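Methods — Computational structure assignment.
A single polypeptide chain was analysed. Its primary sequence is given first, followed by the predicted tertiary structure written as structure tokens.
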Amino acid sequence: MWMDWVWLAVVVGLTVVSFLASEQLKVYLASLFLGWLRPLTEKVFPVFKLEPWLFEPAIEVNLPAGQRRFFETHAPGFLARGFSPLGDFVLRRDRLLWGGAEPSCSRYFLSRDGRAIGGITCYLGSQSIECMSVLLDGMYLETSNAVCSQLPPREHGLQFFIVLASDTAAVIEHHEACVEKAASERKTQAATLQPGDLIAVANYGRQLAMGSLQRQGMLVEVPEFLRRVK
């Protein structure tokens, strides 16, 4: 119950900031507010704990039963489209404040033409199917069936596309269409990726996403491990 009150306080605080502040002041105040709450929110809501993804190889027999079923259900959709397996990986190991723990894991695939990395992900209790691509001009593109309430502005270097479907093929097809459209608009093409590019692409997308949140005032700063090396 007390966690509900904490979350209510966060929402009320941000609402007050939204009504009373100018755009510049809103970003500044929201950053201070979220920074002050960071130690508490990281304990109560693990999703707010920003840390490097582990990318530890996961042995399938050791995956939680629910995650294994989710992977086995949706992996054939990638394989049928000519994607090659890149392996199973543990991204995070979190111990929840109220007890219990379950690793966040992903199973990745590379498309036949190398233009997309597909993923089946169980992350902090949520399950999703996604595809990632990078255009030659640096634009990062990601399609997922996970709900996102606020998409990042494309001027921040990335675009997220949402398709509300539980069918792997639908996610792949939507991603391919979005990549083709974005590449045409920007007069470029998707980069051809190699199996060894997996971690770099995933971290690049995360870096841009965190940078976008910071520019929108939802993060005080981008975590050190994701800052661009000058």
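Note: Residues 2-44 form one domain.
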